[in-house]
Amino acid sequence: NAGVTQTPKFQVLKTGQSMTLQCAQDMNHNSMYWYRQDPGMGLRLIYYSASEGTTDKGEVPNGYNVSRLNKREFSLRLESAAPSQTSVYFCASSESVRQPQHFGDGTRLSIL
Amino acid sequence: EDKVVQSPLSLVVHEGDTVTLNCSYEVTNFRSLLWYKQEKKAPTFLFMLTSSGIEKKSGRLSSILDKKELFSILNITATQTGDSAIYLCAVLADTGNQFYFGTGTSLTVIP
Prior knowledge:
The structure holds 2 protein chains of 2 kinds.
Chain A: E1 4-7, E2 10-13, E3 19-25, E4 31-38, E5 42-49, E6 56-57, E7 64-68, E8 74-78, E9 87-94, E10 102-103, E11 107-111
Parallel strand pairs in A: 2-11
Antiparallel strand pairs in A: 1-3, 3-8, 4-5, 4-9, 5-6, 7-8, 9-10, 9-11
Chain B: E1 3-7, E2 10-14, E3 19-26, E4 30-38, E5 43-49, E6 56-58, E7 61-66, E8 71-76, E9 85-93, E10 99-101, E11 105-110
């Protein structure tokens, strides 16, 4: 029972490099999300996809892009990584946008 | 701007103690409040509260919402070391699609 699977689990990048974080869910959920979690800041929403074919900005979208590839998969791309993007990134999914979310185990990303 | 504040920031208790975690919020057109438990990795869902004064309960954990005073509490009775985690509160406004999370309360239960 995989739930929400994120890859990779860890990554180190140099400033200016690009990177795509992958997320897949096997619960047939309609909505998917990307959050970042920083010490003292809590979870902040980057982008979400209410349903297949739609994406919307969250609280902190600058420097990121997303793609809802199909119902199962939602990727997050950093085009030109910056040290301020060092964080733990969580993908989540839910049946619909106002329902409790199921989270993946996170990707720890460090940008030097 | 919508805001969710959790207190205390951290808490250390002994096994068997009872703890109360607080979540206060300032959200326009409140719809629902959720509690999550985060151990080492993924946050896991505990409760969803939408109505004032109705207690949600699961084993030793319970939660209640006060929509008039704009807060919720999460109670854990007879704490165990497995309760050690960060407890997150999140609030959804009726006019939006995103949950706003507090910074969490870090609970440590020592044997």
